[in-house]
Design goal:
20% strand, eight-stranded parallel sheet, 26 helices
Length: 760
């Protein structure tokens, strides 16, 4: 069996030690590091070969370990060969000597060994090229090594890694044997379930993407996970990323893996939890002086990893916390390390798609044998726009300028330059309160980069100052802004908007399809699925699909006679008519719910509309028990809200909620827990500057601006809300759609065609 590992991962895994210390570590370093590498490499002559791929195989008795990576450069000088390892640093070059960082030498020694072996070299030089980011000054440290010295060093590393490679080999054999025996976990497939599973398996086999609309009740989660696991067992993939937008769908994925585990599957599955939720030391910032889990973390982490992965398969948040406490390691960093050893990672979209948060350790190489399962894929449209966009506000710079005026005048001066830029662009908004342009705001990049350099130094030296937190937050925002500029093309626009006395500058991603397709292309196969992926051509286009991708639209497995749909298209729910509709809607709610005791949810397009109708309803019909969704409900409040939907209700409950909110998708009120839903209006996104910009962009691109900006997102909210009612084959219920657009939108009527019935 062949086990692969990169030079960098091998070195860092075996030789790491000491504390986590990220009081401030310079998050600009990765971006600057790439620039510094290119700067140094371009200055070299023809004897310099940049980015040289090196690889070797180490044979043990029962496995082969493949170690590879890219050397920054190889220099040939007369009879000498030099391996060049480039490192960017914010540390003064005067403080750097050959003992500065053992890992830097270790990585270079591995490359030197491989190159020496491939070319029969008895001696080779290693050069560490340190570049100070602020000044771009260079310091080079060079040592000569014999082949035997390097061989001994490399063999020691690989021998120490053998226990881990052997563990991996044994696990893969155990895992694959269990997958071969694994059968579908239920006695029978539901209608459409087998078709979906087979389609997913074939898509993975073809190394393609699949866009699948699979209605509620078909068993989407198990139908995606089961064939993906089977593909892993047949070496058609290496790792599954199950990506979701909401915590509740992550729980469903965990439950599905547990079902397969109970049927004999051995598969290591980890669920990643956000750092702010899982951190044991809420007030510290991974400072070893304040956090016992950060202090000595790297001295204990490998023992913790070995303990967990040899004893656990399904690795939840609670499991991570248990072993973190046992070994006194940081739970968040621990979970990221465990994800390397996992066969499946369940996590939020941002860990794969967001340039600021993605798991870079998995995406160093251009192509990986990953299977992406993207649940509730309709949510990825707006989420990806947010991830690929960035904004800055004038007042943030002005307030910090005042704060630093007396403490650090140079910092204040840098902030003032940016503030003056905002004053300049503010004048462009005098006629419309906003100004739109298709080019990126290049004039601000130079002052922003100047600010980043000054902030880098100050943050590094002043971790104990009260201003540190405010500056750090703005620093990250600026880095995000500069990062987005690297992807800026004709799919973006820049707009300046007046917001009271404040000014917003935003680089806005209108069409995320290209960036999404690039990320999806880094894997082997992608399955994008949802109960509401309609119209499918829209989602295929906006989520980075192409004409070669597979498409599947499945019918509901439930008897359509179990759901009665009533359309009340005599009431206008347009914004200008809403104040005339309150009493009419209250009457429809009463008429819909009076015949059958049960639990009902009334969905509205906005909180304001919901509250206005609610006030009228409780005054006119005080006999009903009612609840109202509140803005910013905490997790325990949401749970209490849902617990009110009792099975076999003895009196009627009417809950008022918002479409597109926490109760309109992802909740599972089976049986009599939900009798019906009343949906007020189409749920169009609020008319705003950004939606209008999207509309104009797609009008120019494909003539479907209104549909892309307003109609399709609105339709999706309605369909999601409708989907709360029928969750199992025995459920029966009613949906009442209120609004004139329901009568006019032919495409919407086509989507629900065949589900309308008079039987209830």
């Amino acid at each position: 069996m062949n086990i692969k590992i990169s030079v960098r991962n091998l070195v860092e895994f075996i030789l790491r030690s000491g504390d986590i210390n990220s009081t401030y570590i310079g998050r600009n370093r990765m971006t600057e590091g790439t620039r510094i590498h290119q700067l140094v490499q371009k200055k070299m002559d023809k004897n310099y070969m940049p980015e040289v791929t090196l690889k070797t195989e180490v044979e043990f008795e029962d496995l082969i370990l493949t170690v590879g990576g890219r050397a920054d450069g190889i220099i040939t000088e007369k009879e000498k060969v030099i391996i060049d390892e480039i490192k960017s640093t914010t540390t003064s070059l005067e403080k750097i000597d050959e003992n500065f960082n053992e890992l830097h030498w270790a990585q270079a020694k591995c490359y030197a060994y491989i190159h020496s072996m491939d070319n029969n070299l008895e001696r080779i030089d290693i050069q560490l090229t340190y570049v100070e980011i602020d000044t771009e000054e260079i310091k080079r440290i060079r040592n000569t090594y014999t082949y035997k010295e390097l061989e001994k060093f490399f063999k020691n590393l690989t021998d120490r890694y053998y226990i881990w490679a052997d563990l991996s080999r044994k696990w893969i054999r155990t895992r694959d044997e269990s997958i071969k025996k694994l059968q579908f976990p239920f006695d029978n497939y539901r209608k459409g379930q087998r078709k979906l599973s087979v389609g997913i398996y074939r898509t993975i086999e073809q190394e393609k993407k699949l866009f699948a609309q699979a209605p509620t009740g078909i068993g989407k989660t198990i139908s995606t996970i089961f064939p993906s696991v089977k593909a892993i067992g047949e070496s058609k993939g290496e790792k599954i990323f199950y990506l979701t937008a909401k915590t509740i769908t992550r729980t469903v994925a965990e439950d599905s893996f547990n079902i397969l585990k109970n049927k004999g599957l051995r598969f290591k599955v980890i669920t990643l939890t956000a750092k702010d939720k899982i951190c044991f030391c809420k007030e510290s910032s991974c400072n070893p002086d304040e956090c016992e889990f950060a202090k000595g973390h790297f001295d204990r982490i490998n023992d913790a990893i070995y303990d967990l992965i040899t004893n656990e398969d399904i690795i939840s948040r609670e499991t991570i916390e248990k072993y973190s406490l046992k070994h006194k390691v940081c739970p968040f960093e621990f979970s990221l390390d465990i994800s390397i050893w996992a066969d499946s990672v369940i996590c939020d979209y941002n860990y794969v798609f967001d340039p600021k948060a993605k798991l870079k350790r998995f995406f160093i190489e251009d192509k990986n044998k990953y299977i992406f399962l993207i649940d509730e894929a309709h949510n990825l449209v707006d989420r990806s726009r947010d991830m690929f966009s960035a904004e800055l506000f004038k007042n943030d710079f002005l307030e910090l300028k005042r704060l630093f005026k007396d403490i650090e005048p140079k910092m204040a001066k840098s902030l003032d330059k940016i503030n003056r830029y905002f004053l300049k662009i503010k004048k462009k908004c005098e006629n419309n309160d906003y100004f739109l342009e298709k080019e990126e705001p290049e004039d601000i990049f130079y002052p922003l980069k100047g600010f980043v350099k000054k902030a880098d130094n100050w943050l590094k030296e002043n971790g104990d100052k009260k201003e540190h937190k405010d500056l750090l937050e703005l620093y990250f925002n600026v880095l995000s802004f500069l990062r987005v500029s690297e992807d800026y093309d004709d799919r973006f626009v820049t707009y300046t908007e007046l917001q009271g006395k404040n000014v917003k500058l935003k680089m806005f991603c209108l069409d995320p399809s290209y960036l999404l397709s690039t990320t999806l292309g880094s894997g082997l196969s992608s399955i994008l699925f949802s109960a509401t992926l309609s119209p499918i051509d829209y989602y295929k286009d906006i989520l980075g699909g192409n004409e070669k991708d597979n498409v599947m639209i499945l019918d509901s497995p439930f008897d359509p006679r179990n759901l009665k749909i009533i359309i009340k298209d005599s009431i206008s729910t347009k914004y200008r008519d809403r104040k005339y509709s309150y009493e009419k809607i209250a009457n429809v709610i009463y008429d819909t719910t009076k015949y059958k005791e049960g639990n009902y949810i009334v969905f509205f397009p906005s909180y304001k509309y919901m509250e206005d109708v609610y006030d009228v309803f409780i005054e006119k019909f005080p006999q009903f028990r009612t609840m109202v969704q509140e803005i910013g409900m905490k997790e325990e409040e949401r749970e209490e809200f849902l617990k009110s939907f009792k099975q076999n209700p003895t009196n009627t409950l009417i809950a008022f909620a918002v479409m597109g909110g926490i109760f309109s998708e992802g909740i599972d009120l089976k049986g009599d827990r939900l009798t019906g839903a009343i949906i007020v209006g189409i749920g169009l996104p609020k008319i705003c500057l950004e939606r209008n910009i999207i509309r104009e962009y797609f009008n120019e691109k494909n003539g479907l601006g209104y549909e892309y900006a307003y109609m399709y997102p609105g339709m999706n909210k309605v369909l999601q809300s409708m989907g709360r009612v029928i969750r199992t084959e025995t459920d029966k219920g009613i949906v009442c759609l209120i609004g004139r657009r329901f009568g006019k939108w032919g495409q919407f009527r086509h989507i629900i065609k065949g589900k309308t019935t008079n039987k209830y």
